[in-house]
Amino acid sequence: MRHIPEDELHAYLDQGLSRSQCVEIESHLAGCSSCRATRDGIAALRDRTTALLSRLAPPRRFPPAFESLRGLAAQRVHTRRRQARAAVWAASLLAALGLGWSASTMVGPGRTSVAARILPPVAEAPAPPTRTDSVETRPPASTPALAAATPTPVRSEARREPARARNAARVGREDSIRAAKLAVLDPAPAPELAPLDDRRPAAG
Amino acid sequence: MSDDLEKLYQSTYTAVVRFLYRKVWDAERAEDLAQEVFVRALAHRPEKPRAWVFAVAANLARDEARAAVRRKRHLTLLKGDPIAQPTMSPAADDTVEHDEQMASVQEALNTLTPRDREILLLWDAGLSYPEIAAQTGLAVGAVGTTLARARRRLVDAHDRQQKLTRANAAHS
């Protein structure tokens, strides 16, 4: 006859077994005095352990109100969320800085930007009216004395020639850019081939 | 969920304090740690709060024991004494006065292996076999075996100490 192992009896007394196991053990105990004695010894050991451990108890005090703990927990959650938000901000800032830095290294002083390589060149802004024009259009001084004191602008043809040449070059450049843009935006239709019959030399 | 936690708090706060006290041997510190456990439970909202509370309590007690060992070692270094080996004896700055019986039980408990002690204390705190198994990593079937061994060792160690104490009293 197989007796019940001690650890199973411990588990039985601690209610750590399934219902079917309990039924099996109880039916065995009903017919085995040896196992009953062992069970009683284990029960006494169990009670003794509980009694010994009960001596290791701290002085009894009233627990704090649960509401105070709830307030502490809410405060902690709030602090954690604030820290998480700050961390997200810091991470975004760092990412932006990193992107800016990498972009600046890609487009260095000696390199041409990708955009400049792809996009057509933008027309230069028209030069602001030069001061020479305003000087030239200035009405003459009303009094001879003032006219004598005001230095008359001296514009030689030699100085005006390069300016004219520059303007002409700029106008030419702008025209070519405009034409290029138009060609990109509205490509000219492919030249239609004349029907073969038309190209054939007229008979006779 | 919060109501569940409140019920759990009312029913197990004392058990958690007792469980922690048997690990840190300082009543005030045990209460502080128990409150910390429930504050964390309120912040985390665990699915199985009862098992979770004891698991966190065990972790906090472990951290506390490590910190106590560090403090002790630091103080020893400052004094210039040889480094004391970490033991499971009560903390030197324990403010709670233990009576003789309590000290003998405490010594008997300290003779157990950490695993046996942990399982015995979890069982005494009211955890079921599956809960103890989940927390300690043991199989449910092995919990009974470990408990049987731990109980026997605790009682034997306590009986030996009582015998020794009586013999010493007879000699003096």
Word description of this protein:
The complex is a heterodimer of chains A (204) and B (172). Chain A has helices spanning 6-13, 19-31, 33-54, 66-106, 114-118, 131-137, 144-149, 157-185, 196-199. With 204 residues, chain A is mainly α. The radius of gyration of chain A is 51 Å and the shape is rod-shaped. By secondary structure, chain B is mainly alpha-helical. Chain B has two domains: 1-93, no CATH class; 97-172, Winged helix-like DNA-binding domain superfamily/Winged helix DNA-binding domain (Arc Repressor Mutant, subunit A, Orthogonal Bundle), CATH 1.10.10. Helix content of chain B is 78%, strand content 0%. In chain B, helix 1 (2-24) packs parallel to helix 3 and helix 6 (129-136) packs across helix 7 (140-171). The model of chain B is unreliable at 82-88 (pLDDT under 50). The chains are: A mainly alpha (204), B mainly alpha (172). Chains A and B meet through helix 1, helix 3 and helix 4 of A and helix 1, helix 2, helix 4, helix 5 and helix 7 of B.
